[in-house]
Amino acid sequence: MISSAVTEPLGAVAVAEPVAQLRNVRRLVAEGLASDEPLTLAALYLIDCAADMVGCLEDGDLESARDALGSARAAVVSATYAVRRIHDLSRMEQGERMV
After folding, report:
1. Any idea what DSSP says for residue 1?
2. What phi and psi, each to the nearest 5 degrees, are found at residue 34?
3. Which of 1, 6, 41, 65 is surrounded by the fewest CB atoms within 10 Å?
4. C-alpha of 59 from chain center
5. Is there a contact between 26 and 47 (Cβ–Cβ < 8 Å)?
6. Average of pLDDT values for 69-79?
């Protein structure tokens, strides 16, 4: 059974703090890691998607749920691209070492 806390929309105050924390995490990641690396770029994008999704929780309606799903799909695409890019770069480096 789903509790009412899960089914009721969150208020603006309840959403603002986690979004602010995610934005702070994004800033720390961007400052601490090479921002041109595929995995770092994917991590930054995933944080952005998470912040967007948390922001959608405030309304709690069908349109917000669709927006959250769109952000989740975008995050998956970004992470998949990063893994493939890293895989390709690793294979190229291995090929160069063999020559």
Report:
1. -
2. -65, 115
3. 1
4. 20
5. yes
6. 87
